Amino acid sequence: MINGTNEGRFDGRALLTSQDVAERLSISERSVWRLSSSGQIPKPVKVGGSTRWRVSDIEAFVKAGSRPSAERSP
Question: Among 7, 14, 30, 56, which residue has the fewest nearby CB atoms (within 10 Å)?
Answer without folding.
Answer: 30
